Amino acid sequence: MTQRANIDAGAELDPVHPVPPSEASGRASGLSAAEVAERVARGEVNDVPVRSSRSTAEIVRANVFTRFNAIIGVLWLIMLFVAPLQDSLFGFVIIANTGIGIIQELRAKKTLDSLAVIGEAKPTVRRDGVAAEISTSEIVLGDLVELGPGDKVVVDGEVVESDGLEVDESLLTGEADPVLKKPGDKMMSGSFVVAGGGAFTATKVGREAYAAQLAEEASRFTLVHSELRSGISMILKYVTWLMVPTSIGLVISQLVVKDDNFKESVAYTVGGIVPMIPEGLVLLTSVAFAIGVIRLGRKQCLVQELPAIEGLARVDVVCLDKTGTLTEGGMDVTELRPLGGADEAYIRKVLGALGESDPRPNASLQAIIDAYPDSEEWRCRESLPFSSARKYSGAAFSEGDGENSTWLLGAPDVLLPSGDPSLAEIDGLNEQGLRVLLLARARRELDDPQVASDARATALVVLEQRLRPDAGDTLRYFEEQDVHAKVISGDNAVSVGAVAGKLGLPGASRTVDARKLPGDQAEMASVLDDNAVFGRVTPQQKRDMVAALQSRGHTVAMTGDGVNDVLALKDADIGVSMGSGSEATRAVAQIVLLNNSFATLPSVVAEGRRVIGNITRVATLFLVKTVYSVLLALLVVCTQVEYLFLPRHLTLLSTLTIGVPAFFLALAPNTERAKPHFVRRVMRYAIPGGAIAAVTTFATYLLARHYYEGPGAREAETSAATLTLFLVSMWVLAIIARPYTWWRIALVLSMGAAFLLVLAVPWLQKFFALKLAGTTLPWAAVGVAVVGAGLLELAWRWVGRRWPT
Q: Is 321 among the residues known to form the active site?
């Protein structure tokens, strides 16, 4: 488990700023500037084009070349030849909508690209003996890449230096156990360091690297693999199947009915086909996602996969790592308690030497380094890096007087036997929310697997963690939103519970030591449901806990910033990493909080709920129109009457009852947690709503056909039917807009006022071919619409009781 440091006895290395090779014996210096330039000239550069979003050409192509744009485009060209311009308005609306979609996605692309640069991994490369951070794309073949805990291996290579270097290759091989790497061993890009440190030489760069394509794909802007988008695709597929036979029947019937006027027959036929297409639904979904990316980008939140926004809307359990999430990364040593009469001055020397032995100290060790500087008298012979699985680190020293000693520093309840009297004292400190480390002198060699078994306790190091000032408010937000927070930490459970209690986490007093968790998944899930704070959790247990929660039907989000969180982040429904976290956590997380602020998470959750909740609302609006359009066409075919509407009538109705309101409703605040079964939830309202709208509209049309006769009868019949359909559609909008706020009421009323304006202004009447004749039939149309509104209310309530959400 250990590797002897390949360092000359007299050499002392600064872990952050290594000295030139002339001052360090036996240490590889890496490529020279001339060698780097030569390789760049040969093209041996890690030039994989990692993109955070689709290209501009792909965005334009995806928004323009769609199935329904093709259908509408053909119908639009036909209408331009056979009907007045106002019957071709639907084509201009599609152009405007497509343009909006392109612009919004380009804005999202710009946001994502800029954020991706901020969050990009910066590997440390040693050239001319000096280590420096460079961009991944600047690595050349033969570069010497340094590694430490949490670093991601960005290119393939061969190990040159190893100091207890343990690498997790689970993202590539599926094997969760870390692999100890020694000089000469192969390194695979896509793996990451869990313990120790070292350096490797790049042997494959660019597209030849093992995980190059995976890395490129993982960071790509995508709108797929989500229930929302797959549900919409399914709906559009069914709509296409319905459209084809219905449209053929409508074309034939209208040509038979209007055999004396071909152009008018075509115009009415197109008027029946166009509204069947929910053309704005896909666009509005893309716009909602894109605006979500932009909004979150302004909060320094990088969304690496767009469906993550939707996934957050469904989260009902969020697992939080204490360190770096509830507490800030830094710590302070508040007390040093010698045990068994140990000399405090000697203990300080030990702690200083331990701090110097680790070139990549964690937060706890960094606090010790700050408190106890190295005396420079001791030489490190061997080191054991800290591991989340072991819960301790260690080092063997040659002391200034020539004596050798081996020391361990880690969790007291791991290093001390059960029942040790010191544990009672430690529990008291943990209950105050303090972190306690035990310094113990080992009697065995450091590479002995049982090195900790009979170590002698020498001192307690008491550390105080810095609470994040915004963590309490964030936990309260989750409680209010019915999202259960679970604190899962590798630290002592009592200490973690004390920290969570200070922040007001419900159930913080009920703590569980993960070493006592049942192995059975069902039993573990039961314990997880009943408790909120878990300590001494191993990385594999974090993964098991996520799986146990998911087995109970929970949608789980996992936050973290350390290597020990990677496995759980990868398996969680949504992985959230801190920007300052390890490269490995940033690589597997769908969302990266670049500002390292836990307080950003409520904004992310709220954005997800806004998107999925609002798209579910507006999808109902669009599909009600599709249903009533298909049913009206079928009724026309069956009764062999002239089709009710020209395209201009349905363009007006769609704009006022769907297009404009849907845009505002899709971007409105929405805190309701999203529910599964999107298609079923939308269609259970759309089918009865569309059926009622179709039947009431057709009833008014039949009444008008029997009432009106002579010149102008056709326009009067259409106007009466349009009035009924508008009023019923407005009632659908009024139902969808609930619960009411001032702006929702204003939105509904303004759409009604716009329709009245069309009916009242003569040139608008002429433009849209709408003119109500007399008073009897218009009021009858209103009466039929009132009956339809009543039926809609009854249907909506019955559906809500029959299939509750």
A: yes
